[in-house]
Structure formats: C-alpha cells, structure tokens
Amino acid sequence: MENFQYILPEIFISISIMLFLLIGVFKKNSANLIYNLSNLSLVVLLALIINLSSLDTIYLFNNSYLIDNLSNYMKIILVGSGIFVMLTGSKYIQVINLNKIEYPILILSSILGMMIMISSNDLIVFYMGLELQSLALYVLASFNRDNLLSTESGLKYFVLSALSSGLLLYGCSLTYGFSESTNFDQILINSKEFNYGTTFGIVFILVGLAFKISAVPFHMWAPDVYQGSPTSVTLFFAILPKIAALSVFIKFLYTPFANMIDQWQTIIVFISIASMIFGAVAAIGQKNLKRLIAYSSISHMGYALAGLATVSNQGIQSSITYISIYLVMNLAFFSCLFMLKRKDKYYENIEDLSGLSKKHPILSFSLLIVLFSLAGIPPLAGFFAKFYIFLAVIEQSMYFLAIVGLLATVVAAFYYLRIIKIIYFDPEKEEYDTSHNLGLKITLAISTIFILAYFIYPSGITEIVSKITMI
Amino acid sequence: MNFPILSSLILLPTIGALFILFTKSTSGKYQSSKYVALFISLANFLLSLYLWYVFDKNSVDFQFVENREWLSGFINYKVGIDGISILFVILTTFITPICIISVNATIKNRLKDFLIAILIMETFMIGVFCSLDLVVFYLFFEAGLIPMFLIIGIWGGERRVYSAFKFFLYTLLGSVLMLVAIISIYWITGTTDVEKLYELGIKAEYQNLLWLAFFSSFAVKTPMWPVHTWLPDAHVEAPTVGSVLLAAILLKMAGYGFIRFSLGLFPIASENFTMLVYVLSLIAIIYTSLVALMQEDMKKLIAYSSVAHMGFVTLGIFTMTQQGIEGSIFQMISHGLVSAALFLSVGVVYERHHTRLINKYGGLVSIMPRYAIVFMVFTLGALGLPGTTGFIGEFLILMGAFEKNILVAMIASLGVILGAAYMLWLFKRVVFGEMNNQDLKSMKDLKTFEIITLSALVIPILFFGFYPEPLMNSIESSVENTLKMYNFELINNLASKD
Fold it and tell me: How far apart are CA A96 and CA A89, in angstroms?
C-alpha cells in the first residue's frame, strides 16, 4: 500500500473527475463551476507531479508502472500545457455554446489516460492508458455536435484511430507471443535474439504510434480532424496527445525494443523524412489556418522523430526539447487564432488575417514572431529546437536526414511567409474585437516572450532535459 | 578593459528599438521616434569610432573579446574584432544614421515600425561582423532576413511581395547548408570557436564539402553569378533606405565571411576551388556589366553594377595575395559607401519625379546643379577613377590577380572599362543632354537633409580615395596574419602528403 504515494497525481485526478461528474449531475448549470474547478485541479496536479519529480526511478505494481525523469518531465509539460489549453479556450467554448459539464471532464480523463501512457512499463497498462485518452478524444472531436464538420471529424477520427489501435494491439500480442512477457524490461531481456515475430510486432506497434502523432503515412486524419473540431479541441489535439505519444515512442524504442535498433531505425528515418517533406509541401495550398497548422504539425513531428532516429541520448533529449518548444509555439499560435473574433464569430481562414497589422499591431507582431519561429528562423526559439535536432542527427553522421530536413524547412518557410505576407502586406479588413479574457492574453504574452527571449538563456530546457537518459 | 563594449555596440540599437516601441508617438508623423532612432544610431557611431581609437592596430589578435557561456556549456557567446571586422562595424554604424536621416523622404506610412526594423537590422549586422563563434555568426547572419523581409515587403514597390519572397527563400536555401557544415565542424573538432578552430585546423578530407556548404551560403548572399538574380529584384522593389542597407552592408557579410571562414578555416579547399571562384567572378564582372549597360531602370542598373563589383571582391579574395585581399576589403568598404550614395541619389530624383526609368530624365544639370555635382562624384567613385575609393580597391585587386593569373587579370580589367561605360552613360543620360521632359522643370535642387547625407558620403569617398592609409593601416596586419596562417596550413598539408 505504501506505493500509492507515488501515484498520488493519478489518484487525485481520477477522484477529481468522478467528483466533478457528480457535481455536474446533481447541480444545475454547473458548467462554469466545473470548468474552473478542473483548471484548479490541473494546477494542483502539476504541483503534485513536481513534488514527485525530485525522486529517483521508481517501479510500481510488479514493474508495470514506472516513474522516472522522462515520465516526470513529460507529465509536467503535459499538465502545464493542459492548464494553458483550458485557460485560452474558456471564452471560446462559451461563445460557440459548448460550455457543458462534459467538456472539462473529458479533457481531464484524456489527460489521465495520457499520464498512464507516459508512465506505463507494461503493454497492458500502456494500452489501457491509450484507450482512455483516445475515447475521450473521439468525443471531444465531435463535441460541436450540431456542426457537420465536427461530427464528421469525430467519426473519422474514431474509425481510423480504432483501426490503428487494432494494429497496435495486434503488434502487442505478437510481441507478447514471441517474447513471452508484457513487461517492457522483460521483453528487452527476452528479445536478445532476432526473430521475425517480434519484428512484425515492432512494425505494427510503430504504425499505431505513428498514427497517434500523425506522422506520414498515417497522417490522413489530422487535417480533417484539426479543421472540424472546435478550435479549443484542435489546440488540445495539437499538443497533448503528441506529448504523450512521443513519450511512448521514446519508451518503446529504447526500452523493450532497444535490442532491435537495426529493425526500427530505418522505419523511423523513413517516417521522419516523409513527414518533414509531406508536411511542408502539402501545407502550401491550404486556405484554412487550422488545416494548415495540421500539416505544419505533421512536419514538426517529422523533426521530433528525426531526433529519435539517432539512437543517442543527445537525440532523445533534442526530441524532448523540440516538443517542449513546439508546444509553446502552438499555444501562441492558437491564442492568436482565438483572438480573431468579431461579434461572436470566430474566423479561421488565412484571408481573414489580411492587413491585420494595421489595426492590431500587437497581435500581428505576436503572430509574426510565432510564424518565424515555426519556420525555424534564428534567433527565435524554433530555431534552437531544430538546431538541437540537427546537432544530434549530424553527430551520428546521418547527413541525408539532416540535409533533407533543412531543405524541408526552406519549403515550409514559404507557407509561413505567405501568412506573414497576408498579415503585413495585404489591404486591411474590418477590425476584430479587442477585448479578450485575461487567460488568453496571459498565455499569448508568456508564450511570445518565451519564443522571443529564448536565445538569451537557451540552456534552460536543455539542462532539465539532460537528466533524461535512456541508453 | 572589462566593459563589454562590443556587446553594448550590438545591443544599443535593439534597446533603442524597444524604446521606440514603447513610447507613444507625439504626432501623426512620429517625428519624436525618428529623433530617438537618430540619436541612438549616432551614439552607436560614436561608440564605434571610440572603439577604433582604442583599437590596437598593430596587434593581429582579436581584441575586446567577450566570451560567455551560452548554449549549455558547449557553445559560447563569443565576440571580438580584428583589423578587418572593425572597418565593417564602422561602416554599419556610419550608414545607419544616414539611412535614418533619409527615412522621411521615402517612407510615407508606419514610420515607427520602419525605424524599429532598421535598428534591429543594425544589431544583427554588427553582430555578424563581431561574432567569433560559428553558431553565433549563423544566428546573426540569418536573423537579418526577418527585418529585411519586412522592409522590402511592407514599404516596397509594386512587386514587393515577389521580391521579398525571392530574397528570403534564396538566402535561406543557401544558408541551411552552412548550418549543416557548422554542426559538422562542431562534431569533427569539438568546438565552433573560430579562434580555436584557427589553431586546431580542420582535416583536409573534410574541407572540400564544408567549403562548398559555406560557399553555397556566401555565394547567394554576395551575390555571385548565377545566383544573383534575387538582388536586382530586391533592390528595385525595396524602398531607398532598404536598398542602401542591402547594398552597403548586407552584401558585405558574405565577402567578410569568405575571408574570415572560407580562407581561415578551409585553406586547402580554398586552394582547390580557386579556379571555380575565378570563373564565377569573371562571369559576374563581364556578364552583369553587359546586363547593366542595357538596363532602363536606374536602380536595376546600380544593382547589376553591385554584382559586378562584388565579382571583383570575390576575385580579389581568392587571389590569396596581400594586395588582392586588402583590395577586396577596400573595395567592399568603398562599394558600401558608393552604392549607398548612388541609391540615395536615385532616391532623390525618384521622390521628386516618381519614376526610375532613365529615359524619363535628362538635362538635370541645368535645374539641379548641386545634385549633378554629388552624383558625378559617386559615378566616378563607382567606375573607379583615381582619387576615389573605388580606384584603390580595384587597382589592388587587379594587382593581386596579375600576380597569380594574367589571363584572369586581363579579363577582369575589361570589367573596369565596362564599368566606366555603363556608369558614364547613365550619368550622361540623366544629368546631361536635352531636357525633353517638361515636367522635370519643376524639380527642386537638394534639400538640407539631402545635402547632409550625400556630403557625409562624398567626404569619405574622396578622403580615403586620396589618403587610404588609415584604412590600410587597420587591415594590413590582420590580412598578413590571415595569409600567414593560410600558407602555413597549406605547407603543412603538403608536407603530410609526402
């Protein structure tokens, strides 16, 4: 029983979810209350996780649950970004009439699922966490149920995700069958010798995981789901599942499958290159900002995976740094998106940004910073994210990957520039509302300053991340 | 001396920009912000002059070096200057206030934003010339794209979007390969500190590829034929001040990079690729001069002449002779002054008559005598008449070239003649001749601020043309040192082969 103190965060959030559900059922019109309580509980959750993070590696429940530096860091950025997602979206869901009690509760349960995924050290525990987060996400995607696009995106996400979960499960069962265990460390020990069964298992598991982080060629769902979902859910999609899935990616590759690097390295390199190129090229023709950011996130995931393909601690750390900076950039971008509101209607097409800089200089300046940062232009944070990745990639002499990746950034720069062009060079349109809620403004300010001033002290994140060693 | 004088030089314009950003404009015309910007840039200019004053010209070491931990211990923020870079720093701080004074004439809207962009740009440009770490260099080198993109795109002419994109993507494409090379250097040698790299040297087997990667970036930025096409577009569409910054300073980053990095870090590869650079430079000199002859747009003509002049610069650098390199540096400084002056002169008539087409002008000498005089000085400076800075640069470069390869030198000399042809013809068509266009009659001669800016440029062009000693003094020992290290590496390499 003494083990329970280590999973206090998970217990706390589970109890909160149930409690909020009860409040929601028995108290009328409690949507706002629950929303705020959920946010509060996330803050407490963050404090609990940080409180645990000073401890060493701890195995729990027959080695099926693991708390280490990786899981702690990932949970911190997961819950931290969760707080900001809730903060920025609060006004949005009121305006488009989605302020129902289920919304924050679904977000919390999804976060709980992700935390279990991140900490899992066993195929079964992992799958449990994965399904918990996915089920919550299906509902969230179609949350705006009166909207055709939203329901479509929910259904699409459900069908494709269920398929990929099936593949993943098949891979898990193959792995279990040939390595005689579901425990990650045990699989590692039992898979010293090459066998085809486990290799197939790896491929199926990687397919499932690649789907979750929307890497090419398993990206088809992303643009539709991003566009169709309510914007606040899109923001959630763009950040949190990626953190969880990347963390699981790292865990799978470097714990149970660490003996089979030859088998998976080529796959990861291919996925990475394909995502970088496809994401960059496909985004060029987009007209909808949410759709564009879907393609952009596909290519960003390509870069994060490039770090994983290196088989080095440096590479893993660079990927984690990348996702940390990526999430800040996305928060900033979506905060700007939430500000494109005119008389209770939100705008999300690129043309709607036309001439924004004349009436809204601060908002457009933030967008300018974010877009250049997404494009990876120094001295903004996005450059350092890419810099660390390529530092790790070139250390392993993977020049092809590095050069393709950098050329893809040039292609990607084009569509980011196109948005900047529309904001700054094009004729202006009607003014947007200027009053926004405090949470949104704070998020935008913090994230923009972070991106802008990252170069002053760039070793901050790297130092924290350097504690994470897998090899 | 512990005062971080270089960092303050780099940061001062940014602080000024922040100040402008957060101050409310006094009137619709944002006059106050203009004076703040002018004050900041002049202070920076004085600071750089002070730097020149305390700079020890006989030492070959980097001076005022600041070394701070920056990227988690493995890459440091390191800046410092030697006799070569200090000239470019002063050029930058000198041109910026001139740009700010001339801002009124060309920038009609969003003056405040424009001033911020220029000041931020100054930070990056000084940073490029001061950085002694490859990563820091890359950071400043690339960061300059952002303000320049906005300057062209927001305040440019009709085809500004196309030009801004072309400028941005061309230079970015060239530079990303340099990033790969920089990271490779880090893993090969364990450092990106330029001084340490000079000592360590890079193994011969890696040099060719690394050199090419750096070359791809510098060649686009120089710009060398055949990747020069972004320059005429960018120049024509940029506002006058943008063109001035672009021609006077941005183009110099690459020439400086060639001397500091290509020669300094990869001597063996530089030796291998000398012929390539010669050929590209010669094509640039002859071909773009011919193209310049046929231009109808004044700005485009000067843009092409810039390409030709930069052809001389790359030619001079890769002669690897004392005269050639000194001449190239001198030519860069000279071109920085002259091209800035020419673009400003074009700006003067463009602002009055709203066209840059040469055939719309003619006979300006009778209505704008003062303008005719300064324009003549700049024309002569551009074609390299003895007594102007242009002459000394080209003369030294050709001297260096004759020492190494007579054929190359002879072809390059043809470029001098062509240069005289297109510049004089331009002058003739604009200033002399019949005044056919009656609208021109109403044009006024130079205003006070134009006299200030243009004469500020005339003075150094003539002064250093007659008396180049102060500049030569400053670069001599540094160039000597660069060459010494260069030859030392080469001999070492030959010895290790035997």
Answer: 11
Nearest-CB residue to A409 (from B135, B149, B176): B176
Whether the predicted pLDDT of B494 surpasses 70: yes
Structure tokens, A277: 């190129």
Within a 10 A sphere around the Cβ of B334, how many other Cβ atoms? 28
Answer whether B187 sits within 8 Å of A395, measured CB to CB: yes
Cα of B149 vs its chain's centroid, Å: 17
Q: What's the gap between Cα A323 and its chain centre?
A: 7
User: How many residue pairs from chains A and B have C-beta atoms closer than 8 A?
Assistant: 84
Q: Which amino acid is at B388?
A: T
Among chain A residues, the shortest Cα distance to B176 is held by A406
Q: Do A406 and B71 touch (CB under 8 A)?
A: no
CA distances from A293 to A298, A352, B386 (A): 8, 15, 58
Residues sharing a CB contact under 8 Å with residue A431, sequence separation 6 or more, in sequence order = A342, A359, A360
| Low-confidence spans in chain A with pLDDT less than 50 | none
Q: Determine, for residues A390 and B165 on separate chains, whether the beta-carbon distance falls below 8 Å.
A: no
- CA-nearest residue to A396 within chain B is B187
B217, B178 in Cβ contact below 8 A?
yes
pLDDT, one tens digit per residue, over B170-227 is 888 888 889 989 999 988 888 888 888 888 878 878 888 899 999 999 998 888 888 8
In terms of Cα–Cα distance, which of B169, B141, B139 is closest to B153?
Answer: B169
Q: What are phi and psi of A77, to 5 degrees?
A: -70, -30
Nearest C-alpha in B relative to A462: B72
Q: What is the pLDDT of residues A365-415, one digit of tens each?
A: 899 999 999 998 888 999 999 999 998 998 888 889 988 998 899 999 998
CA angle A326, A129, A139 (to 5 degrees): 75
pLDDT digits (tens, 9 = 90+) for B436-448: 777 777 777 778 8
Please name the helix (run of DSSP H) or strand (run of DSSP E) that holds residue B223, with its range, or none: none
Does B290 lie at the interface with A, CB-CB under 8 angstroms?
A: no
Q: What is the CA radius of gyration of chain A?
A: 21
- CA A129 from chain centre, in angstroms, equals 16
Q: Do A377 and B176 touch (CB under 8 A)?
A: no
φ, ψ (nearest 5 deg) of residue B70: -135, -65
B462 touches chain A (CB under 8 A): no
Contacts of A424 in chain B (CB under 8 A): 150, 153-154
pLDDT for res B29: 55
Query: What residues in B contact A398, CB-CB < 8 Å?
Result: none
Q: Which two tokens stand for residue B303?
A: 């843009």
> Cβ contacts of residue B355 below 8 Å, gap of 6+?
none
**Looking at the complex, does the CB of residue A362 fall below 8 Å from at least one CB of chain B?**
no
Q: Taking the CA atoms of A316, A317, A320 and A326 in sequence, report the sign of the dihedral they define.
A: negative
- Tens of pLDDT along A196-226? 888 888 899 999 989 888 888 888 889 989 9
Average pLDDT in chain B: 85
Q: How far is B176 from chain A (nearest CA, A)?
A: 6
Q: How far is A179 from chain B (nearest CA, A)?
A: 38
Phi, psi of A297 (to 5 degrees): -70, -30
Report the residue of chain B nearest A389, measured CA to CA: B183
- In terms of C-beta distances under 8 Å and separation of at least 24 residues, what long-range contacts does B57-61 make, across chains too? B57/B83, B57/B473, B57/B474, B57/B477, B58/B477, B59/B477, B60/B477, B60/B478, B60/B480, B60/B481
- Chain A hits for B172, CB-CB cut-off 8 Å, are 377, 409-410, 413
CA dihedral of residues B282, B283, B288, B293 (deg, nearest 10)? 80
**Mean pLDDT across B301-322:** 89
Residue-wise DSSP of A260-316: GHHHHHHHHHHHHHHHHHHHHHHTTT--BHHHHHHHHHHHHHHHHHHHHTT-SHHHH
B209: contact with A, CB 8 A cutoff: no
